[in-house]
Each structure stands twice: as C-alpha cells, then as structure tokens.
Backbone:
C-alpha cells in the first residue's frame, strides 16, 4: 500500500482542510449526487495539483479517470 505525505503541497492540516472545503463548495451545485461526487474529486485533485502535491493530486484524479499531470504541464 502506498502512503502519501499530504504536506508536500498544502503547508499543513489547516490548508488541506481549506482545500477540501473549497472543493465541496465548488461541487455543491452539481445536478445529482454522482455529479457532485465527481465534481468534488476533480476539484480536490486540481487544488492539490495547484498547491504542489502532484503525487496525491494525481492519485485522487485517477479515481475518476483524469489523466496524470506533471510539473511541466502545470
């Protein structure tokens, strides 16, 4: 089992919690439960990637079929 270090991107638990809340807020208006779940995962993945945590952001994104991104693409 792979272990992820959540603090490569967000500075700490408070920053990670903020990313999660932002992803929930962004996904809240999707038309169905399935769409909300997919929007949440996509948003959280994107926010983690933008914060610098490429490993966790990509791992979460692959759950819904998003392609992996590297630092050059960001």
Residues:
């Amino acid at each position: 089992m792979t272990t992820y270090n959540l603090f490569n991107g967000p500075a700490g638990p408070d920053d990670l919690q903020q990313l999660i809340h932002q992803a929930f807020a962004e996904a809240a208006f999707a038309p169905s439960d399935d769409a909300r779940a997919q929007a949440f995962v996509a948003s959280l993945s994107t926010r983690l990637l933008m914060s610098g945590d490429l490993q966790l952001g990509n791992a979460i994104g692959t759950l819904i079929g998003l392609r992996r991104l590297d630092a050059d693409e960001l």
